[in-house]
Give the backbone structure.
Amino acid sequence: MPLLKHLHARAGLAGLQAVLLLLSLAAVADDELSHSFAPVDPPRSVPDFSLPDMDGELHTLQDYRGKVVLINFWATWCPPCRREMPALEQLYSNLGDQAFAVLAINQWEDADHVFAYMGDLNVIPSFPILFDPESKVSAEFGVKGLPTSFLLDKQGRVVYRAVGGRAFDHPDVEQTIRSLLAVE
């Protein structure tokens, strides 16, 4: 408590608030990421979209029809988003040779900024990183916070949704996707 009294006396309420914020962020950073997805029942169709990747190549959702698609809305400033990226790559490397795709849709940031962030990762993602600079696609999906992920079946319908960070390398996540892959 002496630290809090000292900060309160020296910096007033702003210092105390800063300490409390740092303590709460540290607590969140230590939390385990969930691995559960909420079923969307009935499955929901989503509008087609075209977004550029880091090289400027356009990716259209329609191009992925016939595959199970994991769409992840994220940003580099979002701590759980940053924690998810290596697990997304692990999941993609485990299932990428099947009818499965990952589309990571960055919000509000430019390619140069994201490219610099990718250089800090231990493993660079091999799935497409797409850009939604005005968040139009995320608005169509009803995204209210980051990260938010959607699992689409082979018909392009949202069948699962997850708000908040996920441990994509958890066996239950892989099993959920394998069950969607098994459906014809």
Observations:
- The chain is about 40% helix and 25% strand.
- The CA atoms of residues 34 and 166 lie 5 Å apart.
- The longest strand covers residues 38-45.
